[in-house]
Amino acid sequence: MNDVARAAGVSSMTVSNVVNGRSGVSDEVRRRVLRELERSGYRMNVAARTLRAGRSGVIGLAVPELDRPYFGQLGALVTAAAAAEGYRVAVEETGAQAEGELAAIRLSQTLSYDGLILSAVGLDLQTQLTDAGQLPIVLLGERVAPTGVDHVALPNHEGARAATALLIERGCRRIALVGGRPTDATTMLSLRLGGYRAALQDAGLPYEPDLVIPTGAYTMAEGRRAGAELGTRFRGSARVDGVVGVTDTVAIGVARGLADVGVRVPADMLLAGFDDVPEAEYLTPSLTTVAPDHAWVARRAVGMLLGRLDGSRVGGGDETAPFTLVERESTRR
Prior knowledge:
The chain is of the alpha/beta class and 333 residues long. The chain is built from eleven helices and twelve strands. α5 crosses α11 (294-310). The model has no long low-confidence stretch (mean pLDDT 90).
């Protein structure tokens, strides 16, 4: 590293900053250092750095599924937020099962990751999270975090409330909610269902349990099946005139299912989703959706984790992302 610094005319600290991807180095200096690194054949001794600093420079990100647009977007944003702080991200898929989430925790310990950002779905947080030991963890998702654990949540209740209220404002009077299966546990669905019901109550509209259409999973295929069912069951005097999909992925499927049975969005039925995945903007019609600040979620989760590592953060914290409601063609008649 000293040889590279002399050849590039910079300090060894500058070389270290470039190697670790830290900010504060001009583009011209970074190019010069990278050129000398390439010429010299220098490679960082990661094992030695880990022993010296007590850090691996790697944090884990464990999510339920990698093939969903939302989690792909989240992974990219967490990777960018971590890179800005000189960290790499290793991504694990848990299958939304407790076993997969425990395996991600154990793998993070085995490979000496500096910490883990975990989207918990199946884990018993009050008991099984103790398996983490001293591994710093930040939780994502809807589950209530144990005392002393950091947690970043989405605006599930208020976002669904805003989406439903928009459909009411646009003239809808019988609005369905599509996605998941209601349970007594606190889940993404239970929170978004609560927001949906609150908006109906605010407008003086009745809550009709039959208009909550369950799906076996949060997939486009399940949304398509539910959309076809919805378009077939509720015709004539029982017609539904609006739908909220609990995720954009489900809502995209609902749009296809409605089209399969001759129901047009937005001419016959208005439709809104939740997440603002990139695909939502490019559908025909484009999808109105609740847009949480995903970049904020990524930055906050990484910041909480690094705060644990440098000792500036103690205790736990529970924070909810801000959101906007993005209206597109699917709610404009």
